[in-house]
Design a protein that fits this description.
Helix content is 37%, strand content 12%. By secondary structure, the chain is α/β, with parallel strands linked by helices. α3 (86-99) links the parallel β2 and β3 (104-109). 27% of the residues are buried.
Amino acid sequence: MKLPPRDAWRGAVPVLDAENPPARLSRDAPVQKSNFMAYNIHAVWQQEVWAAVERSRKYINQYMGGLLTAENVDDAEAVIIASGSAAAQSREAVRICAEKGIKIGLIKVRSIRPFPTQELRQLCGKTKLIVVPEFNYVGWLAKEVATAIYGYSKAKIIGGPRVYGGQSMPVELIVDEVESGLTGKKSTNVAMSSIMGGAVNQDDVAHFMRSI
């Protein structure tokens, strides 16, 4: 017996992908166990996970020496924030920039959950530029950084360069973003949509937030 093809629009249960509005069910999808989980059960589950994450903070500080490491950020006009393998290229980029006379620091994020929000607010309060190179498509770390320091820093945040799909990240790309960010030149490697922080017109941001 051959069943007829399913017409989703006729179905009793709508098609949900748990990722995109208006059907998005979770801020950090896909963390849900089921699209049909009761909202109160899901909320309690997320609260328990978040509480466990926060409880781990003191142990990470005790046994790992902190949620991040910082180098030469006190009087830096530019700071590179990186995590994982991107930190290695970033450290070489810092060396090259320093040879060119740029005052630059490096922050290596060692923990994502919990995220070092307070630490970043203290370290990035005076810097003019933040560059966040990443080995992924969406630029999750740059968004986390922008969210953490919003209202505490007027730094221009460049979410990139970003590479993915097994590509390598040339150090020159990071150096180029630092130099163009400090001189005001338009980036050649990072889209304007990935430029955040003090460089963004706040009226445009407010209009965008009202429209979503």
